[in-house]
Amino acid sequence: MAGPTLVWLRDDLRLADNPALTAAVSRGHGVVVVFVLDDESPGIRPIGSASRWWLHHSLAALDASLDGMLVLRRGPAERVIPALVDELGATAVYWNRRYSAAREIDARIKTSLRDAGVEVESFQANLLFEPWTVQTGDGGPYKVFTPFWRACLERGGVREPLGVPDLGAVLGAPGSESLDGWGLLPTTPDWAGGLRDTWTPGERGAHDRLDAFMGGALSRYHRRDEPAVEATSRLSPHLRFGEVSPFQVWDRVHGVSANSAKFLSEVGWREFSWHILFHWPRLATENFRPAFDAFGWGHPGDEVLAAWRHGRTGIPLVDAGMRELWHTGYMHNRVRMVVASFLIKNLLVDWRVGEEWFWDTLVDADEANNPASWQWVAGSGADAAPYFRVFNPELQAKKFDPDAEYIRRWVPEYGTPDYPDPIVDLARSRQEALDAYEAVKAAAASRG
């Protein structure tokens, strides 16, 4: 007699449009749903503090949707999953594919379980276009977004999202660990008050957010670069944890507004980042463009770095963005580019330092978008400008926050004697960055 199917969830914490779960229910014989907290296996990047907060609440919401049947286990997946298969007498294991270096773990588990006579299947769930399906004319990966996204759109064939399968097939299992026991939430000090006020993790919260976007912000999306205007979707953390799928977003947004194509191209940037990470798995630690190994990063000191992290630089738009991040675990995308450029170009700090800070403080930090975005701003990444772009935060503020509405929201002392002087001269530091870039150009020229 066939045993139950084990469904192993990762970054797909949802019931609707979950191909692995749907296929497992269709197979019959009962389903056990498990989430494994694996923060120790090689190839796994342990998530940051803000993401741990989100994960706790997302798992709690998922467990409630499953009537308390979600199984939690902690440890290396290559030990936990086979042990759970033996414990349950499971005869099949299903999961949705992932595209980071962790896929090597999946491949080894798949091979060992199949060798033991267990059926193992994986599914496309979290990307519209899987990395190996979109190739250049010579069969290689794309390194520039525009031709990549054009090739994706020419492929077409975005499937319709799946519904919620019959959850009566979901079984409990003995030995589930305590979510509270995992210690994902902050204790003393409790810094998550702003996160609680801002977000509702979980599948229902994701669809409420999508509904709100469709009901208002999409019509204003052409003003997405203005941080004081509610014109963006704020779906990024829900997509990061898979509480909503890109197929569901595509289905709701495609063709319904004059702004739809532009918004979906931003979803395309998410796809492009994963495409890059799939082919260059060390994206968070190595320059995508090796010539940037010659860039002369400075050493501003702990005090200057702390001023950037906590929004005390004396540069209003930078400070507003960093305070928004500290309070909400989120930052407007235009401002993300400005604060990253300021750290890299004006303070001459290695982009990896900023990437690690965002990894710890963003609720939407994922393994592809976070390093890809930092490298893009640094100029070391894929599709970077052919020249060395330096965002001027004062000009950016005048253009995108002309009434300082966003700045005053997060920096109430702006314009008063209590606001600090700038920690760096923007013009002089810009020139120092351009001078440092000369070494990169020379290194690139020597490579031919």
From TrEMBL:
It is an enzyme of class 4 (lyase). Keywords: Chromophore, FAD, Flavoprotein, Lyase. One of its GO terms (molecular function) is deoxyribodipyrimidine photo-lyase activity. Residues 3-128 form the Photolyase/cryptochrome alpha/beta domain. The lineage of its organism: Bacteria, Bacillati, Actinomycetota, Actinomycetes, Micrococcales. PANTHER family: CRYPTOCHROME, CRYPTOCHROME CIRCADIAN CLOCK 5 ISOFORM X1. Its EC number is 4.1.99.3. Gene3D superfamilies: 1.25.40.80, DNA Cyclobutane Dipyrimidine Photolyase, subunit A, domain 3, HUPs. Its cofactor is FAD. Belongs to the DNA photolyase family. This is Deoxyribodipyrimidine photo-lyase. It holds the Pfam family FAD_binding_7.
